[in-house]
């Protein structure tokens, strides 16, 4: 490999839906890293949030690499939520990769390969490049259509100007397509990357601001550039090591990034990339940005994975590893030994442990309020109180789930806001774990494979 490619266009837009954690916009800390009672969608759990904030600060300062944090606590105490908060607070540049322990077993690659990829997704490389760009205001675009259909390809001319000069450029088919696609017209200020031919519309020239009265409110006006049309510009982009791996590993290149079908990546490819990145770092062209790898449900990993983690953390380019589990003392997968959280002692020893605690009634109430707002559900005061009580008695998750269901019940009876009746209706429609277990206890003879009294196996909860 003579050249390591780093970029092949990353114009992805993300689709946002209302997910379990979509209300979380950060860790909700103040400048002194104290957790505010309720901020950025985060409520309570102050000690854990503060601890997470301290870790984040260390990452931002670039002080630590290869550290690991364990979020441990009962189900529904906000471990995943805190990890999401960290991701949001981390900022644009540092990458945040996330996976669930169980994913390791469902991929068409070895477990260690899956973990290696996950680690490399969490390491960013900031690359500085000088490129030549042409930047100017479009005076005219002239496209010559061929006389016969499908005969010769289209050609054309593009006239660009700055306040000081004007030049006519010849256009090929590719450029014409790009210009048409972006609806570039005269009066637009554009920048064209000479190497890749990528066109970016910077806005409309101020000189043209009075031309149209029917322009959308989003139209951005910019000054016509001055000086030379051709300029050298330093561009900085951040890619992850994994992205570089994929782009360089196979013929389909970056397409694999979109398809998610990357397969195993050969060790030689990775070695070459690591050498290249090291060279760039020495030349001052690149910097490593260690990000965060979050492995949820970490007790699902087995002993092989755990020992891989031990080693991987000692690598100098390792990201910060955050793992979460709700398990107590349990068997380590792949062995017959028991250990706290189902994690071997040698790995536990390397972890900073953050514990999460159950929520108070007031905190549950606040989280439910935030969720109502997130889901756009109007709810009466009484209904909120009842839902909070239910949350306290059953679980936070169960009560969060009732919000959507109750809103539907309310819609059905054409009500304006969710009332107590809607809550009690869905409370009787959907049972929580406690009632479901109760039901099983009473009627278990009628179910298949019931073996409760006296037997070890088949107990309902671990
Ligand atoms: N402190 C909090 N502030 C706001 N929302 C929270 C908070 N804690 C939890 N939630 C919300 O409550 C729900 C359950 O929390 P979460 O999924 O984080 O629990 P968990 O500790 O990961 O549980 P499990 O061990 O079962 O995975 C989520 O929708 C989460 O966004
Ligand atoms: Mg979780």
Task: Give a verbal description of the structure.
It is a single chain. The chain has about 450 residues and is of the alpha/beta class. The protein folds into three domains: about 40-120 and about 290-355, Rossmann fold (3-Layer(aba) Sandwich), CATH 3.40.50.300; about 130-235, RuvBL1 DNA/RNA binding domain (OB fold (Dihydrolipoamide Acetyltransferase, E2P), Beta Barrel); about 360-430, Helicase, Ruva Protein, domain 3, CATH 1.10.8. Helices cover about 35% and strands about 25% of the residues. It contains 14 helices and 17 strands. The strands form four sheets. Strands 5, 6, 7, 8, 9, 10, 11 and 12 form an eight-stranded mixed beta sheet that branches. Strands 4-13-14-3-17 form a five-stranded parallel beta sheet, sandwiched between helices. Helix 11 packs antiparallel against helix 12 and helix 12 packs across helix 13 (about 420-430). The longest helix has 17 residues, at about 395-410. The model is unreliable at about 10-15 and about 455-460 (pLDDT under 50). Adenosine-5'-triphosphate binds near residues 44 and 79. Adenosine-5'-triphosphate binds near residues 21, 44 and 396. Pfam families: TIP49, TIP49_C. One of its GO terms (molecular function) is ATP binding. This is RuvB-like helicase.
């Amino acid at each position: 490999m003579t050249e390591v490619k780093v970029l092949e266009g990353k114009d992805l837009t993300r689709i946002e839906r209302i997910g379990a954690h979509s209300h979380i916009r950060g860790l909700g800390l103040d400048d002194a890293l104290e957790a505010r009672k309720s901020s950025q969608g985060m409520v309570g759990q102050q000690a854990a949030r503060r601890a997470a904030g301290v870790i984040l600060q260390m990452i931002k300062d670039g002080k630590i690499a290869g550290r690991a944090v364990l979020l441990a606590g009962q189900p529904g105490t906000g471990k995943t939520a805190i990890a999401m908060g960290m991701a949001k607070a981390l900022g644009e540049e540092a990458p945040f990769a996330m996976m669930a322990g169980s994913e390791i077993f469902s991929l068409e690659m070895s477990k260690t390969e899956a973990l290696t990829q996950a680690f490399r997704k969490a390491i960013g490389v900031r690359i500085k490049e000088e490129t030549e760009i042409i930047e100017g205001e479009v005076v005219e675009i002239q496209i010559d259509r061929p006389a016969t259909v499908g005969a010769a390809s289209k050609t054309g001319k593009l006239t660009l100007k700055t306040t000081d000069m004007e030049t006519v450029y010849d256009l090929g088919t590719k450029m014409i397509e790009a210009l048409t696609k972006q609806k570039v017209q005269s009066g637009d200020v554009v920048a064209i990357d000479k190497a890749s031919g990528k066109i970016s519309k910077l806005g409309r020239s101020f000189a043209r601001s009075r031309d149209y009265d029917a322009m959308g409110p989003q139209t951005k006006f910019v000054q016509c550039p001055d000086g030379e049309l051709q300029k050298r510009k330093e561009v900085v982009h951040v890619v992850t090591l994994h992205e570089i791996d994929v782009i360089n590993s196979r013929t389909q290149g970056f397409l694999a990034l979109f398809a998610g079908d990357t397969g195993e990546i050969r060790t030689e490819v990775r070695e070459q990339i690591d050498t290249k990145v090291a060279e760039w770092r020495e030349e001052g062209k690149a910097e490593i940005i260690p990000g965060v790898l979050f492995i949820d449900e970490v007790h699902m990993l087995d002993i092989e994975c755990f020992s891989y983690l031990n080693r991987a953390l000692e690598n100098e380019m390792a990201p910060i590893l955050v793992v979460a589990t709700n398990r107590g003392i349990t068997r380590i997968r792949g062995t017959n030994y028991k250990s706290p959280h189902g994690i071997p002692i040698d790995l536990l020893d390397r972890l900073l442990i953050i514990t999460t605690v159950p929520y108070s009634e007031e905190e549950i109430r606040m989280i439910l309020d935030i969720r109502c707002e997130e889901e756009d559900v109007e709810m009466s005061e009484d209904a909120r109180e009842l839902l909070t009580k239910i949350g306290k008695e059953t679980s936070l998750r169960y009560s969060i789930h009732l919000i959507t269901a109750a809103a539907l019940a309310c819609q059905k009876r054409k009500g304006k806001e969710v009332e107590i009746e809607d809550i009690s209706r869905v409370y009787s429609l959907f049972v929580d774990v406690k009632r479901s277990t109760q039901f099983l206890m009473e009627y278990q003879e009628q179910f298949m494979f019931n073996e409760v009294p006296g037997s070890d196996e088949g107990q309902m909860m671990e």
